[in-house]
Amino acid sequence: MTADEVNALMSRAFPGTDSETQWRVTTVAPGRCTTVRPYADVMLRPGGLVSGPNLMAMADTAAYALILAHIGEQLMAVTSQLTINFLRGAKPGDIHAEAELLHLGRRSAVCDVRLWTESPDRLAAQASVAYALPLPEART
């Protein structure tokens, strides 16, 4: 799937999401994708940094988008594990994520996701995300 196709699929799968603050896939390539979520003040935690739950949600979203880009419209793929390492405080700004597919099997997928707000050279977090894929007979 292309970035536009993944974005359209996600809009259909999650109707009613605020288009001003919704993340979007910006690029898809073999084994990789990039996503961005526009900055909003509601992302901040006390201390003026982007909150951990927002970074975790973005890591999960980037992994899901990457997997869908490679397996197609299999919306019942579900997160089975997410481990995140917070590397530095994420300053206010758009949250960027770059996801890399480490493993894509018949029943599972594993991704590495790097997140930042300032620049890709100043990572705010890194996550390992695993997904359980639907059984072949459950796929539509």
Fold topology:
Layout (H helix, E strand, L loop, with lengths): L2 H11 L10 E6 L2 E6 L6 E2 L3 E2 L1 H20 L6 E9 L8 E10 L3 E9 L8 E8 L8
Antiparallel strand pairs: 1-2, 2-6, 3-4, 5-8, 6-7, 7-8
Chain-averaged pLDDT: 92
Give the topology string: H per helix, E per strand.
HEEEEHEEEE
Query: Which regions contain 5 or more consecutive residues with pLDDT less than 50?
Result: none
- What's the total number of strands? 8
Q: Briefly, what CATH class?
A: Alpha Beta
Q: Please, what is the CATH homologous superfamily?
A: Hotdog Thioesterase
Helix count from the secondary structure assignment: 2
Per CATH, what is the topology? Thiol Ester Dehydrase, Chain A
Q: Give the overall shape, derived from the CA principal axes.
A: globular
Summary tags:
140 residues, alpha+beta, Thiol Ester Dehydrase, Chain A, two-stranded antiparallel sheet, 2 helices
Could you please describe the fold and organization of this structure?
By secondary structure, this protein is of the alpha+beta class. The protein has one domain: Hotdog Thioesterase (Thiol Ester Dehydrase, Chain A, Roll), CATH 3.10.129.10. The protein is built from two helices and eight strands; from the N terminus they run αββββαββββ. The strands form two sheets. The protein has a six-stranded antiparallel sheet. A two-stranded antiparallel sheet has the order 3-4. The radius of gyration is 15 Å and the shape is globular. 28% of the residues are buried.
